[in-house]
Specification:
17% strand; 288 residues; globular; binds NADP nicotinamide-adenine-dinucleotide phosphate
Length: 288
């Protein structure tokens, strides 16, 4: 199959592109193409360019990973967030008749009583969450055979993203810098490669609608940072606890969040990896 990927050079885009390359004809696109990489420059805000690229490439599937992902950035600039996260998705729907796989987030929930199933009530509490929820609705209204995969706290040590919690923890501790990490935001962080493998299986089975995928550990962001420090053999005493209230982030965050993955576990016959397994795999990969 010919698969066109938008946002292909971001954190998740890199892993998804790599996972698809052996079995599909993958065309990577990005707003900017990193040095040494191949791809087509494509901003999903530009509908004319998007239509041209779709007409020339004629993909069977589009995987949309292009998004404004800075949660506080979206709060600061809601117009741009709507342009990219909502209008961008609308452009893709209007430019392409085939199957679209789109990524969304647990931030569509308010974090009062997670972890959440696909049928739980949504209630976003940030601009980012609102725009991602709108994007899901546009996509599935356009064609219910499209697929939305929701993820949460997606991590890797990819060099091509500003959005990596793992990189931030490792780089700060390596420089002996203290970091403060919240003790009351709970979810189930998910390795990019775990998400990429699930995406491949969803394509194989031609799934549609909304599905959740998260790895197996439900834990606080503080405990996740400590786990990272332990695995990378860095000084975990540099990680200082703080509450969300005291941190005063610009956008409100869901506190008790996370995504139940039972629907995909049952449909695909898969098991969720643990954070320990994933961090071990990242460290092993880096040694090769
Ligand atoms: N990270 C998470 O924890 C998380 C959790 C749940 C869901 N998701 C979803 O997963 C998807 C991928 O996120 P990620 O973690 O891989 O974040 P990321 O590393 O920030 O990747 C997003 C990519 O989209 C690109 N992009 C931004 N605006 C664009 C535009 N107008 N046209 C084309 N490309 C554009 C970015 O390029 P630039 O580098 O040029 O900005 C970047 O390559 C997003 O839909 C996100 O909402 C992420």
């Amino acid at each position: 199959m010919r698969i066109l990927i938008t946002g292909a050079f971001g954190q998740l885009g890199s892993a998804v592109s790599k996972a698809m390359m052996d079995s599909h004809d993958v065309i990577r696109t990005g707003r900017f193409i990193p040095k040494g990489e191949y791809g087509i420059t494509l901003d999903i805000q530009n509908k004319i360019l998007l239509q041209n690229v779709v007409d020339v490439i004629q993909p069977d599937i589009i995987i949309n990973l292009a998004a404004m992902t800075s949660v506080d950035g979206c709060e600061l600039n809601p117009d741009l967030a709507k342009e990219i996260n909502i209008a961008g998705v609308q452009h893709i729907c209007e430019s392409f008749d085939g199957k679209i796989i789109h990524f969304s987030t647990d931030y569509v929930f308010d974090g009062e009583n997670g972890p959440y199933t696909e049928s739980d009530l949504v209630n976003p509490i940030s601009v980012y969450g609102e725009t991602k929820l709108s994007s899901e609705r546009i996509l599935l209204y356009h064609n219910p055979n499209h697929l939305v995969i929701r993820g949460n706290v997606i991590y890797d040590d990819s060099p091509t993203t500003k959005a990596s919690f793992l990189n931030w923890v490792v780089k700060s501790l390596e420089k002996n810098e203290e970091i403060t990490v919240v003790t009351d935001q709970i979810n189930n962080p998910t390795w990019t490669e775990s998400m990429a493998d699930i995406t491949s299986l969803c394509i194989e089975k031609n799934l549609s609608g909304i599905v959740h995928w998260g790895d197996s550990n439900q834990l606080t962001r503080f405990d996740f940072a400590v786990k990272i420090a332990e695995k990378y053999e860095l000084d975990k005493k540099l990680i200082k606890p703080i509450t969300t209230e005291k941190l005063t982030q610009l956008a409100q965050r869901p506190l008790k969040s996370g995504l139940k993955s039972d629907k995909l576990i049952d449909t695909l016959g898969v098991i969720q990896p643990s954070i320990d397994d994933c961090l071990n795999a990242i460290l092993k990969r880096n040694k090769i």
